[in-house]
Task: structure prediction
Amino acid sequence: MSEPNPTPPAPQRETYLPAEAVSRDAPRRVFSGVVQLAVLVTLMLGYWVLLAGEAFVARFGMAPERALGVASVGAAIVVLAGSALAARWARRIGLLEQTLGWLVVSSPLVVLLTLAATGHAAGLARFVPPDLLYLTSLLDNPLMGLLLAVHAVFLIQVLGATVGYVAMGGGTLDLRFSFEAHVARQHLRLSARKVAGVFGLGVLSPALLLLWPLTLVGLTLAYAVMTSQTRRRVLEQLMPYIAILGVSIGVCALVTVLSVMSGFEVDLKKKILGTNAHAVVMKYGTDFSEYRDVAKKVRTVRGVTGVSPFILNEVMLTSDQYLAGVLVKGVDPATVGQVTDLPKDIADAAHGAFGKLSWLSHPNEIPVVTPGGGPAKKVQDEIDNSVGGAGGPQHVGHGAAPDAGSAQRAAPDGAGGATQRAASAPDGAGGATKMGTAAVDPSAPALPGIVLGVELAHTLHVYVGDRVNVVSPLGGELGPQGPMPKSRPFRVAALFYSGMYEYDSKFAYISLHQAQKFFGLGDTVNGLELRVDDIDNTRVINRQILQKLDGYPYRTKDWGEMNHNLFSALRLEKLAMAIMLTFIVLVACINILSTLVVFALQKAKEVAILKSMGARDTGIMKIFVLEGLIIGSIGTVLGLIQGYGCCLFVQKFGIKMDPQVYYISQLPVKIDPVQFTVVAVIAMVLSYLATIFPALNASRLRPVEGLKTE
Amino acid sequence: MANLVQIAGLTKDYFLEHKRIPVLRGITLSIEQGEMLSLVGPSGVGKSTFLQVLGTLDTPSAGTVMFEGVDVFGLTDNALADFRNKSIGFVFQSHYLLPEFTAVQNAMMPALIHRMDPGEAEARATELLRLVGLESRLHHKPGELSGGEQQRVALARALCMHPKLLLADEPTGNLDPETGAGIHRLLDDLNQRLGITCLVVTHNAELAKNMRRQLRLREGQLDEHLS
Result:
């Protein structure tokens, strides 16, 4: 009699088994109330650790974002360990309990956090770590941030439960991989020589890609000379290597793009924080006259490295024919260098900056181009002619230096004619004088100085020594038709280059004294600018400053708040890019999954033989998890090496960009070990998750079924 | 001799398109420790199924298999796996060696599964391969061995954990008569020297007659002859 295809019914053990024969550690049911309770307690405990942990860690003076990071790691460990213990108790992964627990805990949390984040339920905010709200608000979409957070929690649950099942599914902790590693290595047919070959090819891959026609011809020839049997064997053996290649490409793309985006962020941050202070102290109202005392107090706060008063107002600047709306900032030339990079930006001659900050305080030292000057004058004449202006007469006596941009265009080397020549003078300031085309004119009226951005000077067609008018619609005298705009001439004392078009085209600096005088503020300021030793700790320092100043009427703002839109856009863009590129890694990991599914099918008989020899389900699972992790780890390491190579290439040889358009001459790259580590962890976690389904599937194979497979 | 296995009312049914096909019909059998039994019967009668159920590779539809007084099908999956590892040795008709591993690696696999120290496991496997006359083929892969050699490696593997019960499913089915006779002599020798209980499924009536107890499976029931 031939055996038909068996579809065995569920064994009726309970009908014939004596109670004493049933092991005490019998497997739990599909759903267990105790396990469900354990999952719920774990999640609540994890959330409590996040909430209380941040407050606890912050007591030690750690920066809020770092404190949140530490608390998050603590909470993740709690959830991971709790989920693992629940799986050990259940002797199965317990996905049902984990999912239900996650839904029960996460749904109200998302609602609560969203309400708190959007300010609809301010009272609930105390149940939310303040920095979590802050961070999610930076994404400009708190709900998206919170959803990402709760999904990360579920991922950690699944990780914990599967790791718990693999490691403790037998009832005791068993982290040994003796035969499992042996079998996995044989399945993958990996040897040290082959792995070295993979790395060699990985390193050479850019060359192979560049010479793709030759590579293609080589592969075609190699394929042609193989016998059909060899072809089949090679193709079979290639499967894990194709999966490795997929992971490495995904990881390489992810680290390279993130490094470039980090480079942009660092560059932007550097420029913004160079022009702006790290924080400001302001006062409600307009009578901030005690700023000197406040500055003294603020200086005593730990972490504050510089304090400088400022006045900021919107005005209009006019030159002979041009005008521009700008932000004019009154600064103390003696202390502004403590809080911003203005002195350095003025010294950046390579980008057209010129002049001296001290000329703000001593405007009579500003060089003024004399009439009938040499080259500088000629360039200005060219500009005047080209724009159809009659620039000559009005420049007489007030200097006729060209604007920086035009001078750059006129100079054959493209580096800025007069600017370059002036900056090349040994003192870096009196270039025009030494050329004999400009001189300090003792008869010229000592107009107060003003420092302009190079782009602003370009717009106004002015240069150092030229006169500009500052016009404010407010504070003028009353005329027959109402208030008249207030206007005052200033002499351009210096040009600065910050690297940010927005700043170089919109900012002008005058001395604090002149600003107070011009805006009629008396001896008051708008606020104090601060520089701190650790920009990530600015919010903590701000809190300490407010404590020192007894709070109201003073308030503080950090750089993140002052540039909220820019940084939140940047973060959102980076996050979106990271998520999109993680999908590449995900696709690569699905390749791992498909490889393992094929392995599980091909090796069904082998699995059955191993089971007949006493291999446990968790042992079989470990084999497939190991296989996936070996593929994932080789792919990840290879991808990181390739990514590092790409970043180094971009850094050393660079991808040139037009500085007139992008304000950077080369694609910026920041090689951040933390970022590389995060990408590696993401790739490994995804690789691990990709193994779960085929590993579970293989482990559940009944030996008798496996033995029947051909 | 002590009772090793006690089978009572062992039933196994297969289902084909919801139609119940009984294969084993309430088999009752007692096996003493150190016994050597043969099981014969026509093809498709359920000999392999009986062996698989006895070796816990498959579950019965009804009935009990008591091994040293413990109902093995009442054990958890992990306990059952440990039971297979320590107490049962399988030799299949088609040797079922792991093709990527050498003879010694195949033979030491049950010991590695038992988490034995790899050095100790290898020493034990080497000793067993020497016992079955393969000391010169330790590092050969199954593809490089003859059918008889492969079956002897399978035998060494089955003996690796010193099982109490050796189940051999037509171990000589794919071998020429001479090699088959050699395997049977080896089984007999192991039974004599190590006291291992053996249940051998065979088509070879002559070989079966050499065993003290001969079982015949017919229409799902066992007949027994003593020699």
Chain A has a mean pLDDT of 75. Residues 185 and 627 of chain A are 7 Å apart (CA to CA). The first strand of chain A starts at residue 279 and ends at 283. Chain A touches chain B through 52 residues (CB under 8 Å).
